[in-house]
């Protein structure tokens, strides 16, 4: 009986999904912004891919795979913590700021920021331990075209 329990735990441990990477966590957070207002626009999808390319310098094939995996991961997620935890563990403040800027870029790709998009970015910024002043400055820089 003990042996069968050990086998059950071992098989469960071996079937767990691989750890999230910073790239996948970032793609998932960006995808959350696209999905936030339930009005997915082509401009937002293009900005999503553009931001992933800018941050990670991927080939077109790798970019397409990451974009698709990020969208799937965001759809399956029950919270944002699983993504922000990876970023908090592996990224410094400058990298977190770059991610915040990317979130605003995707949200503003259609020249409007829905309240739910802003709320979602605020939640992500809090989870990334980004000060509110930096949250506002980054938003204004993106919406005023100072980026």
TrEMBL record:
InterPro entries hit by this protein: DjlA_N, TerB-like
Superkingdom assignment: Bacteria
Location of the Co-chaperone DjlA N-terminal domain: 23-139
Protein name: TerB family tellurite resistance protein
Organism the protein comes from: Alteromonas australica
